[in-house]
From TrEMBL:
GO terms for cellular component: cytosol. SUPFAM superfamilies: Bacterial luciferase-like. GO terms for molecular function: oxidoreductase activity, acting on paired donors, with incorporation or reduction of molecular oxygen. NCBIfam families: F420_MSMEG_4141. Pfam families: Bac_luciferase. This is Putative F420-dependent oxidoreductase. It comes from Kribbella solani.
Amino acid sequence: MAVELGRFGVWHGPQHFGPELAAGIERAGYGTLWLGASPDTGLRDAEVLLAATNSIAVGTSIVNMWKSPVAEVAASYHRLEDEHPGRFLLGVGIGHRELNNDYRSPYEVIVRYLDELDDAKVPEDRRALAALGPKVVHLAGTRTAGALPYLTTPEHTKEARRILGGGVLLAPEQMVVLETDPEIARATARDRLSSYLQLSNYTKSFERLGFGPDDLAGGGSDRLVDALVLHGSAVDVAAGLRAHLEAGADHVAIQQLGKEGMDLLPGYEALATVLGI
């Protein structure tokens, strides 16, 4: 990898990621800040995170291909590379059929977008691809630094590693709730999962993992929720995060869930201590 990501990073949308949290996460020892929720083409939120920190990597997870013209994204990438050399990884992805009126063959759109990134001189080892299904996971390994699966399990990680082979980045995202009461934790998890259970790319991924219609109903079965969102003490959650590494991941992007407005840093500090980072 041209960008050093470390073993663990932190994933949040820009509404949760301010300069103070970014700096605190860097002090805690994490390797990467992942900027979610379809960052805009100017990548200004990524620029804020880079400016607020010293050496931690920043990646997008992900820039949406449907609404982000390659020329603009590439210009932003080159600006960030000039300002903060070696610290930025451009994560791109296809988005969701249900949220794009002009949705066409996703595979063809991805290939064309990567071709245009080639033409715009965004190097393969400085970009990564959101990938769930086998075909796109394989494409991520042949046309980018690797795959950024979102909302998956160690079982998915194991299969993705089999498809990618060695020497290719595999960096799954993992939601966590630091709460030892399982009912409270599951309620928090379901609150976050509800919208994803309506999106076909995720539901197909869950089906490939062995979950059926009953698991997707009513906000998600306990079995589905427990598989997708780690919960418990920092020690319990850390064991689940390590399971991704044991299954073949190079890096795990951690997304801590909780009440709106809560201070997220203490939870990340507690996990960092247990994980030894």
